[in-house]
Amino acid sequence: MINNQVFVYGEIAIDNIINVPHEVDREIDTFVIEDHYMIGGLASNVAVLLSLWQTPVVLSGYALGDDHYGRLMMQMLSEYPVLDLSYVTIKKGVNSAFCRIIVTPNGDRYILAFNLEERVKDPTPLTKEMLGKASHFVLDCLAREESFLPAMKLAHKMDLCVIGSDVNSLDSPVIPYAHVICNSAGLLRKLNSDDDVCNFSRRLNKAKGAIVITTDGPHAVHVINRNGEEFWVHPPVIEGKLVVDTTGAGDSLKAGVTYGLVQGWPLGRAVSFGVAAGGLIIQAVGAVSREPKVEEILSLIDLVRITKDR
Hints:
The chain contains ten helices and 16 strands. The N and C termini lie far apart (about 45 Å).
């Protein structure tokens, strides 16, 4: 096994990206332009991006079935030599998780999830031996608290930097164990009656002193550091580039922040790297097919603005 710096744990799923020529309308037949099977799932996407950036990384979490989708997913993941798949479990008699994602011309997407509930309830158990010499632990938290909490507790106990995502409740049991929390403002607004996402993030930060990073679609990313200081990171304006598919934009932010923290960068630079990576990811179909290189992302950081106010 590679002596890993990052252990990524959570959703491992294959994506079927389906491109359509217009918004889906029940009165109009929707004819598919093309479709592709690609790597998907938060954990898979983050791990693949980190491996592209030559960061030793181990992937685990959801088990894959000994079925067509499971074999295809393993084949695609095995193309990344820096990615350690030793703890991706293959189970007979289970169905691999996969998503059909309908993408419209403006980059919006509609996700149909298959077999995720079954995989959420039965993740690969995490052990001290699996964590090896990892320094950072990235966890997919959304709706998975009960089954994934033991893994988060173990990583925290072993003094890893724990990076969680989608902590959408102030009474979430994962809060005491997360050093960094990456949230989506859009999801927060749907799940909470309080539209003041920034206030929610402040309360989340005060609960345990975690760094809280909140994305909001194409808008500036809100960041609160451990001391409660706030700043905003504005995405780069890339001339002539259109939004093709927003799938994986949030995952690229998490991967970029993790990469920057592993490098020992200041928080603002780490978030800027993730924001710049997201600006490239959305230019292609699929969460990781764009495969942005470190040098390419760094060339965009000068176009990322950091301000004290929105």
